[in-house]
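Figure 3 (text version): structure tokens given as input.
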């Protein structure tokens, strides 16, 4: 399964902040494609060099395709996650030719990509944004630090968990209107929902984590009896949950409107 916190694979995320996704695209289903890799310890320098070559080629071409590379702040240093955000599914069919081949030629591009032989494990996935189950709007700011919650949903309990998330979002809007988190649902195969909370600075992360926890939100918004009913729904619906804190790697990420490293 595609998971965030099981060794040896760190699957980051995130993320969904998109310099390319304009406000007028916000009503379309936003999609994220993720590739998580575990690299041999001796192979990480080569993988980093390859990622930087892709960044340089994309800037040279002024590509409109962007991605964010994430590292877990605590965990295996030889694991990376590359996240690409699309405004909708149709945009995934519009991928241009490999930027390394376009800028370096076939032979040189193959030499750079040879670093990929150091990768021991690869996992990929596609998730769809759910505005109804989210609070606030996805940010267009370049990400810095991020914390997010990954949930595994029991087989056959997806609708029950969606109903629970809908009530959590309703309660959050009532009692914590300043909150902002985004929910992404699996497109196919994986019984998972990802709930992300993206914060640009550690101070903002402190503020977010100090906020009212979910049971307290539900109790304040709906009363103790309804909060208990919703807690029982959650217990029935999920099989596992993990918090993750990660940091975007500016040098290995590409943002077309303004390079991430310059922000």
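Below: residues designed for each position.
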């Amino acid at each position: 399964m595609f998971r965030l916190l099981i060794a040896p694979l760190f699957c980051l995320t995130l993320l969904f902040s998109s310099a390319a996704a304009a406000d007028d695209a916000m009503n379309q289903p936003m999609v994220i494609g993720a590739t998580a890799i575990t690299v041999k310890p001796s192979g990480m320098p080569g993988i980093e060099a390859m990622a930087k070559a892709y960044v340089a080629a994309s800037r040279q071409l002024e590509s409109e395709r962007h991605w964010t590379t994430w590292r877990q702040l605590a965990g295996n240093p030889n694991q990376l996650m590359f996240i690409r955000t699309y405004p909708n599914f149709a945009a995934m069919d519009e991928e241009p030719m490999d930027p390394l081949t376009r800028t370096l030629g076939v032979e040189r591009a193959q030499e750079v990509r040879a670093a990929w032989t150091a990768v021991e494990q690869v996992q990929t996935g596609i998730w769809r944004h759910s505005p109804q189950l989210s609070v606030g709007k996805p940010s267009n700011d370049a990400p810095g630090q991020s914390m997010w919650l990954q949930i595994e949903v029991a087989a056959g309990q997806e609708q029950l968990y969606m109903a629970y998330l809908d009530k959590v979002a309703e309660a959050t809007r009532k009692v914590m209107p300043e909150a902002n988190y985004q929910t992404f649902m699996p497109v196919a195969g994986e019984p998972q929902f990802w709930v992300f909370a993206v914060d640009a600075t550690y101070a903002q992360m402190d503020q977010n984590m100090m906020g009212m926890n979910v049971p307290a939100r539900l109790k304040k918004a709906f009363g103790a009896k309804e909060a208990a009913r919703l807690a029982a729904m959650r217990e029935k619906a999920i099989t596992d949950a993990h918090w993750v804190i990660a940091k975007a790697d500016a040098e290995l990420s590409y943002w077309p409107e303004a390079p991430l490293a310059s922000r």
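Residues 1-27, 258-263 have pLDDT under 50 and may be disordered.
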